[in-house]
Amino acid sequence: MQGIFITVEGPEGAGKTTVLAEAATQLQNKGLDIVLTREPGGIRIAEQIRQVILNTENTEMDGRTEALLYAAARRQHLVEKVIPALDRGAIVLCDRFIDSSLAYQGFARGLGIQEVYAINQFATQGIMPDLTLYFDVDIELGLKRIEQNNKREINRLDLEAIDFHSRVKAGFENIIETFSDRIQRVDANKSFEEVCTEVMEKITQKLNEKGILV
Ligand SMILES: Nc1ncnc2c1ncn2[C@@H]1O[C@H](COP(=O)(O)OP(=O)(O)OP(=O)(O)O)[C@@H](O)[C@H]1O
Ligand SMILES: Cc1cn([C@H]2C[C@H](O)[C@@H](COP(=O)(O)O)O2)c(=O)[nH]c1=O
Questions:
Q1: Which of 100, 152, 155 has most ligand 2 atoms within 8 Å of CB, for mutation?
Q2: ipTM of the complex model
Q3: Ligand 1 in contact with 149 (CB < 6 A)?
Q4: pLDDT digits (tens, 9 = 90+) for 113-167
Q5: Is the CB of 49 within 6 Å of ligand 1?
Q6: Which stretches of the chain are assigned E, i.e. beta strand?
Q7: CATH class held by domain 4-209
C-alpha cells in the first residue's frame, strides 16, 4: 500500500467532520488525490449497517452486537474503499476508525479495550492509520455544538447519558497513551479556523515525512 491513511477521532461534536471536509478541500486544491470518508459508513453496505446501529428505536441492542456491527462495517469499508485507495497511492481521510470502537465499546460500554481490539484485528487484519488526530473537546461544549447543529440528526449514541460521554473521553485518554506514536492531540475547544490550521499543520508534517511535499 503506497498511500497514506489518516483518521480523526474524538467525542461527539468535536468538529471532526467539518474540519476534515475543509482539510480535504485544501489538500485537493494542491492537486493531491484525496479520499474523504467516514465510519461507520462510506460505502453502501456500511451505510446500511450504520442505519441499524444508530437507529434511536434499537434501544435493546446488546453491547457486543454493537461492537461486532461496527467491526463488520469497518471490514467492508476497508476492503471496498480504503485499501483500493491506498493501493493507488491516495491520501485517505477517514472520520473515525478503530479508536472509536476502543473508546466507545471497549471502555465506555465496559466490554474491554483488549477484547474489542481483538475483534477488530480480525476485521482489519492489522491495518492501522499512519496518523490519527484526536479532537480533544470538553464534553459539554461538544454536546452543545451538536444540539445547535440543525442539519445533524440525533442518533442512538448521542442519547446516551452524560456519564457515558465522559467515559468515552476517558477511554480516548487511555488509548492516546497506548498509541502515542500514532495519535496526536488537537485542541478542539478552539475556533474552527484555529483547529483547521492545527490540523493542516499536522497533516502536512506527516505528508512531508512520507516524502509528499505540499
Ligand atoms: N471549532 C469549532 N467551533 C465552533 N463550532 C464548531 C467547531 N467545529 C465544528 N463546529 C460546529 O459544531 C457542530 C459539530 O461539528 P461536527 O459535525 O464537525 O462534529 P463531529 O466531531 O463530526 O461530531 P459527531 O462525531 O458527533 O458527528 C457543527 O455545527 C459545526 O459547524
Ligand atoms: C466508528 C465508531 C463510531 N461509534 C459511534 C460514535 C458516534 O456516536 C457514532 C457515529 O456518529 P458520527 O456522527 O458519524 O460521529 O458512532 C462507535 O461507538 N464505535 C465506532 O467504532
A1: 100
A2: 0.98
A3: yes
A4: 999 999 999 999 999 999 999 999 999 999 999 999 988 899 999 999 999 999 9
A5: no
A6: 4-9, 34-38, 91-95, 131-136, 183-187
A7: alpha beta
